[in-house]
Specification:
The longest helix is centred in the last third of the chain and has 28 residues. The chain has one domain. It has 20 helices and no strands. The protein is mainly α and 465 residues long. Helix 2 runs parallel beside helix 9 and helix 11 runs antiparallel to helix 12.
Length: 465
């Protein structure tokens, strides 16, 4: 019976995803304390404002958030719990609605002007906004508003990824594993716009990979068919975060290839590589000539950052949890090892070499775009101005799947079998990592009353500070 169940469910990763995502999503939504996620009050304020369901959070003592991830609100919430005020203030106290123009000036500053925030100008907060409005209708407290918004976000996310996995021609279990990491689950069970951003990136990547597979199989894709396929993902991606728009490069390269095929221009691999290297050399020379000192300064900061043993942004924060709570160090190595094994198991996937190169370049560009943008900002450095502290692992998480094509090429030289035991290992690691992450969050808040935020991480223990 056990083997029959495995045979029925393992070929359908989208169903496995839906069950695990909704189950753990609801658990995370209910158990995680309010305002635990990074920039929590900022996202709550925006959701309230665009849904015109604004309450005065200062009435329950949540007044200190400066939208810069300072630790005050986290300490405030843990102190509330210590003093038996957490449920009384946030869940049971009824709050009246106030006019939008009385909301925090950081979201209502453009009230009544053409730049005012609306559903259309802040699409990434639409689902949390609907949840906040529905939650207030159920019971007029901050707790009801946030919990309802969290659960609605979980349902929306789960259904979207369900259809993305179902529509994907390859890498189904890659989408499943990355989408069920503690980092993504913490994002989804919050009011953050990172949920929308992750979905927008996943949809665009899935559509592009599917087209890459079709091209490799020599299936005919007309220019019209290309635009039909890419239209909705492009519109959705347009409203995502700035760095995510780098993904437009992939459909642009696909379009160039289709045009090349149509007009029958012949460029071999060597010619394209030489042209690309020459363009990079020219661009690099211009940058070095115009911004030599700045380039040296940024390069030093990136090197020190990558050498820093305690820098968690590119390790635990990437898939093991946000800055607020991760998993024990002894387990994230297992998590990464399982992810790499899964990458290497897709040894039969064959995408065009130029598609693989483009995906890798976009991944690298995203890394440098984020690191450089924070490197030049002195507000996001350690005390000695050597380590780039602003980025968080979740900024890179949506781009991990872009590494799949290059791993598929490496996998042709390394034999890893994609079978039920690997899938079971993936599922066990997913479940254990989610349980560990939620357990740490619960222990820190409900038992120890320790504020969970990035200011309690290794930032103050950097070697190169």
């Amino acid at each position: 019976m056990y083997n029959m169940l495995l045979k029925k469910i393992l070929p359908h990763p989208e169903i496995i995803f839906l069950i695990v995502s909704i189950s753990f999503g609801i658990l995370f939504s209910l158990i995680q304390p309010l305002f635990i996620e990074p920039d929590a009050v900022y996202h709550f304020d925006n959701a309230m404002y665009i849904s015109d369901t604004v309450v005065d959070r200062s009435e329950v003592g949540v007044t200190s958030e400066d939208y810069g991830s300072k630790p005050i609100p986290f300490t405030l919430i843990s102190e509330m719990y210590k003093n038996d005020l957490y449920y009384k203030n946030l869940f049971f106290k009824k709050l009246p609605l106030i006019p939008k123009y009385k909301a925090d000036k950081r979201v209502s500053g453009n009230y009544g002007t053409k730049n005012d925030k609306t559903y259309f100008s802040d699409i990434m907060h639409v689902v949390p906004a609907i949840g906040v409005k529905l939650g207030y209708f159920i019971y007029p407290s901050i707790g009801s508003m946030i919990l309802t918004a969290r659960i609605l976000s979980v349902i929306f996310f789960s259904l979207c990824i369900f259809f993305i996995i179902k529509a994907s021609k390859v890498y189904k279990y890659m989408f499943l594993m990355i989408s069920l990491t503690p980092t993504v689950m913490q994002i989804v069970t919050s009011l953050s716009y990172d949920t929308y951003n992750y979905l927008a990136c996943s949809l665009m990547i899935m559509v592009c990979i599917n087209m890459g597979i079709d091209i490799k199989k020599k299936e005919k894709i007309s220019i019209i068919d290309f635009f039909i396929r890419i239209l909705i993902p492009s519109i959705i991606l347009y409203y995502s975060k700035m760095n995510s728009k780098l993904l437009y490069l992939i459909p642009f390269v696909i379009l160039l290839y289709l045009i090349k095929q149509k007009v029958k221009i012949n460029f071999n691999k060597g010619t394209i590589i030489l042209i690309s290297l020459f363009a990079m050399f020219v661009f690099g020379g211009i940058v070095l000539t115009l911004y030599f000192e700045q380039t040296v300064f940024i390069t030093k900061k990136i090197v020190f950052t990558l050498l820093e043993p305690y820098y968690t942004v590119l390790s635990t924060e990437l898939i093991s949890g946000t800055t607020t709570a991760g998993i024990p160090n002894w387990f994230y190595g297992i998590q990464f090892a399982t992810l790499i094994l899964l990458f290497l198991s897709y040894n039969k996937v064959d995408l065009p070499w130029w598609f693989t190169a483009c995906a890798l370049i976009v991944f690298v560009l995203n890394f440098f775009a984020i690191m450089i943008s924070y490197a030049v900002d002195n507000n996001f450095s350690d005390y000695a101005n050597r380590i780039i502290t602003g980025p968080q692992g979740r900024y890179f998480t949506p781009f991990i799947i872009l590494l799949a094509p290059i791993f598929s090429r490496i996998a042709k030289k390394i034999s890893v079998s994609f079978n039920k035991w690997l899938i079971l290992l993936v599922l066990v690691v997913i479940v254990v990592s989610l349980i560990l992450n939620l357990s740490i969050t619960s222990l820190k808040f409900y038992v120890l009353q320790i504020p969970a935020d990035e200011w309690r991480s290794g930032i103050h223990h950097y070697i190169f500070k």
